[in-house]
Write a structure and sequence with these properties.
Blueprint (H helix, E strand, L loop, with lengths): L14 H6 L5 H7 L11 H6 L6 H4 L39 E3 L2 E5 L2 E7 L23 H12 L6 E6 L7 H12 L6 E6 L1 H4 L6 H8 L4 E7 L8 H12 L3 E7 L8 H13 L3 E6 L14 H14 L7 E4 L8 E2 L3
Parallel strand pairs: 3-4, 4-5, 5-6, 6-7, 7-8, 8-9
Antiparallel strand pairs: 1-2, 2-3, 9-10
Helix pairs in contact: 6-8, 10-11
Length: 337
């Protein structure tokens, strides 16, 4: 694609075409946003290790000419990623120790994670799985059957969490097959999907996918990932309404990120925009200390102060729980205020 691409063109394309047409070249993204790459502290080394990937529709929500746009800062490879930060590593939440079957992470009582895709529509620079060895745990059809069998053989498992990468990058047919297989497991009560796609590529929510999710025997919960109010576009609101009409529960989890959403005002506006779209604020995560992400860190002390002020301004149902993930723990760790 070129920097002159019409920002409205994505409305006439299907989601696979939009995915393929996304920005993967820093210069093209900068031209589109009317920015000079040399002024942005870009790191080619960081981009080589973790490539730029941004859908056109998401880039269209960025403010042109603004090098500090909060959506741009989430995706731009910068020199700070190459700085060492004490306590940061490549597996900060202990995923690798929790692999029970290929593609299955059994970290929590009664719940298992399916890592069903290693790809994403957007590469968020703060991603806690940016170093995860996806190639070792990809679900082939054979491995998928083994993973489902693991759930079937463990009656204490009541919830499956589809994660990744991006689980909704599977096509409608394959997701439908998985849902049909999970429907036959009597002790499985819920299917939870963690996805950023309805936010960054809302056209992925096709009628076929809506049918798949809406007809599930299990209750379906879709946990979205939005960090800033500017991410909630009209297209996002439309697909969220369609999801709610299929009785799908919509929650949101955010990551607290320096210079992006680390103020009470920004978080309050995000909660308000989410709720207007029918999404309930769920978690506000402290940054997982992944190598390459230290420049996003907000201290726990500052996080407490911020969320206390959010509590002062909003009703309780709009205040996300402040949490952090710790390796080896059986649940998220709530941050005491």
């Amino acid at each position: 694609m070129t920097g002159s691409t019409n920002a409205n063109q994505h409305h006439s394309e299907n989601w696979q075409q939009q995915l393929a047409a996304g920005f993967s070249d820093i210069e093209k993204l900068c031209r589109y946003l009317q920015l000079v790459p040399a002024d942005l502290g870009i790191s080619r080394t960081a981009a080589a290790a973790f490539p730029l990937r941004v859908p056109q529709g998401f880039a269209a929500r960025m403010e042109k000419g603004n090098p500090e746009d909060p959506l741009l800062l989430q995706v731009l490879p910068v020199e700070q990623e190459m700085h060492p930060y004490p306590g940061f590593g490549t597996d900060p939440v202990g995923d690798l120790d929790a692999i029970s079957e290929t593609g299955v992470l059994h970290k929590y009582h009664g719940r298992v994670l399916f890592i069903i895709s290693g790809s994403c529509a957007i590469n968020c620079r703060y991603c806690f799985r940016r170093h995860f060895p996806y190639a070792d745990v990809q679900l082939s059809r054979k491995k998928q059957r083994a993973a489902v069998q693991y759930i079937e053989d463990n009656p204490a498992i009541s919830e499956v969490i589809l994660s990744g990468g991006e689980p909704l990058l599977w096509n409608d047919a394959r997701l439908g097959e998985l849902f049909q297989r999970l429907a036959s497991i009597d002790h499985l009560q819920r299917i939870r999907i963690h996805s950023r796609l309805p936010i960054v590529l809302p056209s992925r929510i096709t009628p076929q996918l809506l049918d798949c999710l809406g007809q599930s025997r299990q209750q379906v919960i879709l946990v979205l990932h939005s960090n800033h109010a500017n991410e909630i576009s009209t297209d996002v609101a439309i697909v969220c309404k369609a999801l709610r009409q299929r009785n799908i529960t919509l929650l949101n989890q955010s990551v607290l990120l320096k210079n992006i959403n680390d103020s009470p005002g920004k978080l309050c506006l995000l909660s308000e925009k989410l709720f207007q779209a029918g999404i309930l604020p769920y978690y506000l995560h402290l940054l997982d200390k992944t190598t390459g992400t230290g420049h996003f860190l907000v201290s726990e002390t500052n996080a407490r102060n911020i969320i206390r002020e959010v509590q002062n301004r909003l009703p309780g149902y709009l205040v996300p729980k402040l949490v952090k993930e710790e390796a080896g723990r059986l649940s998220k760790t709530a941050i005491a205020l």
